[in-house]
C-alpha cells in the first residue's frame, strides 16, 4: 500500500517529503494560535528580577502561545509589536500613561503575527495604605482578557487582586501573576469559534448588571453578597459583575468593551444609555438595570468607606431611561457594613418600573 502511494505521488509530481510537509502544514493551520501581550506599571518594570520571574511563570502557563511580549522589559521586540505599541502610545487617551488598549489595535497586531487570539494582561498597583504600626503597603490589581482577532470580540475578561504587605508593588505583582497562572483556565479551542450564535428566544426577561469598585472587588465574600442580593431582588440567575473573576458572556464582554472605550476617552467612568440598550438587544432582554456602587470617600488609613449606589433602568426597546435612584451610606463605614446597608436599601426601597405603565 505504501509503495502504491509513493508511486501515485511521484506520478503527480509530489515527493514523499513534500507530501509530509503539506500534511503537517494543514494540521497546524487547523489549530488556533495565541499571542500574549503584557503591560505593567513602570515601578514593576523597573524591578528587572521580578519581571524575569513573571516572564518564566507566563511561559510555563502559556506553553502553547506563539509569543509573550512584555512592554518595557529588556527583551527584543518584533517589528509588529513596535508598530502596535506606537499606535497605543499615540492614542489621545494615553497621553500621560498607557491606560487604554484599543481592541482594534490588538486585533491588528494579532493578524500581523498570524494569531487567531490575543491575550492582554495588565498589572498595576491599585490601593495605597498607611498606618503607624505597619507603615506603607500597596495592593496589586491585574486583568486578563482574550480577544478573537477575526470577530473583534472579547472571549473572556477577568480581574485578579492581591493584598500587599509592603510598599513594593513588584512583590505584589509576582504573587498576582502566580495567582493568575493557578486560577485562569482559558485556552484556545481546538477549532475556531463561529460568530453565528444568536438568541432565538422571543420572551424578553429583565437583565441586570453590577459595577463594583476595587475596594469591594478585592473581597470575594462581599462580591458574592452583592450577587446574591441582586439575584434575589430581580429574580434572575445570572448577575454579571464588572469585573470579578467569573466567566463572562460574549454580550457582557461587548458591553465592557464599550464602557472601557468611552471611559478612556473621558478619563472617567462612563456608562451610556446606548451601551445598555445594545446589551439588552443582544440578550433579547428588557428592561436592563445597571447598579453602580462607587467609593466616594475613605478615611486616611482606608479602614472605612463612604459608598454610593446608583441604579439606572433602561427600556431597551424604546431606547429611553425609565428610572434612576441613588442610595448613599453618607457616613464612612466598614466595607461589609456599607454593602449590607446598600443591599438592604435595594431590597426595601427600589421597585423595577412596569414597562406597560411607561408606554
Q: Could you characterize the architecture of this molecule?
A:
Helix content is 40%, strand content 26%. The strands form two sheets. Strands 2-1-3-4-5 form a five-stranded mixed β-sheet, with helices on both faces. Strands 7-6-8-9-10 form a five-stranded mixed β-sheet, sandwiched between helices. With 359 residues, it is of the alpha/beta class. Residues 1-14, 18-29 and 191-202 have low confidence and may be disordered. It has helices spanning 2-11, 16-29, 42-45, 48-61, 79-89, 103-112, 169-183, 214-217, 220-234, 250-266, 273-283, 335-349, 355-358; strands at 34-40, 67-70, 117-131, 135-148, 153-162, 205-211, 241-242, 285-298, 305-315, 320-328.
Give the SSE layout.
Elements: H1 2-11, H2 16-29, E1 34-40, H3 42-45, H4 48-61, E2 67-70, H5 79-89, H6 103-112, E3 117-131, E4 135-148, E5 153-162, H7 169-183, E6 205-211, H8 214-217, H9 220-234, E7 241-242, H10 250-266, H11 273-283, E8 285-298, E9 305-315, E10 320-328, H12 335-349, H13 355-358
Parallel strand pairs: 1-2, 1-3, 6-7, 6-8
Antiparallel strand pairs: 3-4, 4-5, 8-9, 9-10
Helix pairs in contact: 4-7, 5-6, 9-12, 10-11
Short description:
With 359 residues, the chain is an alpha/beta fold. It has helices at residues 2-11, 16-29, 42-45, 48-61, 79-89, 103-112, 169-183, 214-217, 220-234, 250-266, 273-283, 335-349, 355-358, and strands at residues 34-40, 67-70, 117-131, 135-148, 153-162, 205-211, 241-242, 285-298, 305-315, 320-328.
Amino acid at each position: 500500500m505504501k509503495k502504491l502511494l509513493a508511486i501515485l505521488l511521484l506520478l503527480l509530481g509530489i515527493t514523499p517529503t513534500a507530501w509530509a510537509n503539506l500534511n503537517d502544514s494543514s494540521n497546524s493551520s487547523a489549530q488556533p494560535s495565541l499571542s500574549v501581550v503584557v503591560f505593567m506599571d513602570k515601578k514593576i518594570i523597573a524591578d528587572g528580577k521580578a519581571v524575569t520571574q513573571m516572564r518564566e511563570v507566563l511561559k510555563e502557563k502559556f506553553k502553547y502561545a506563539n509569543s509573550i511580549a512584555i512592554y518595557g522589559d529588556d527583551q527584543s521586540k518584533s517589528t509588529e509589536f513596535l508598530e502596535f505599541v506606537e499606535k497605543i502610545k499615540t492614542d489621545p487617551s494615553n497621553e500621560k500613561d498607557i491606560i487604554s488598549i484599543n481592541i482594534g489595535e490588538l486585533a491588528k497586531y494579532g493578524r500581523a503575527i498570524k494569531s487567531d487570539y490575543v491575550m492582554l494582561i495588565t498589572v498595576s498597583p491599585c490601593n495605597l495604605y498607611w498606618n503607624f504600626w505597619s507603615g506603607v503597603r500597596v495592593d496589586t490589581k491585574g486583568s486578563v482578557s482574550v480577544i478573537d482577532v477575526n470577530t473583534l470580540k472579547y472571549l473572556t475578561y477577568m480581574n485578579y487582586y492581591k493584598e500587599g504587605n509592603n510598599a513594593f508593588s513588584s512583590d505584589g505583582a509576582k504573587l498576582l501573576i502566580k495567582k493568575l497562572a493557578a486560577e485562569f483556565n482559558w485556552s484556545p479551542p481546538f477549532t475556531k469559534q463561529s460568530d453565528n450564535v444568536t438568541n432565538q428566544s422571543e420572551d424578553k426577561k429583565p437583565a441586570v448588571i453590577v459595577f463594583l469598585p476595587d475596594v469591594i472587588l478585592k473581597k470575594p465574600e462581599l462580591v458574592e453578597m452583592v450577587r446574591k442580593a441582586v439575584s434575589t431582588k430581580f429574580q434572575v440567575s445570572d448577575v454579571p459583575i464588572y469585573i470579578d473573576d467569573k466567566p463572562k458572556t460574549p454580550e457582557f464582554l461587548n458591553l465592557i468593551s464599550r464602557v472601557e472605550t468611552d471611559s478612556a476617552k473621558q478619563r472617567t467612568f462612563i456608562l451610556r444609555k446606548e451601551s445598555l440598550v445594545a446589551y439588552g438587544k443582544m440578550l433579547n432582554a428588557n428592561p436592563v438595570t445597571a447598579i453602580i456602587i462607587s467609593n466616594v470617600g475613605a478615611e486616611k488609613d482606608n479602614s472605612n468607606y463612604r459608598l454610593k449606589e446608583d441604579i439606572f433602568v433602561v427600556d431597551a426597546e424604546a431606547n429611553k431611561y425609565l428610572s434612576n435612584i441613588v442610595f448613599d451610606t453618607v457616613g464612612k463605614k466598614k466595607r461589609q457594613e456599607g454593602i449590607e446597608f446598600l443591599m438592604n436599601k435595594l431590597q426595601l426601597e427600589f421597585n423595577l418600573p412596569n414597562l406597560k405603565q411607561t408606554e
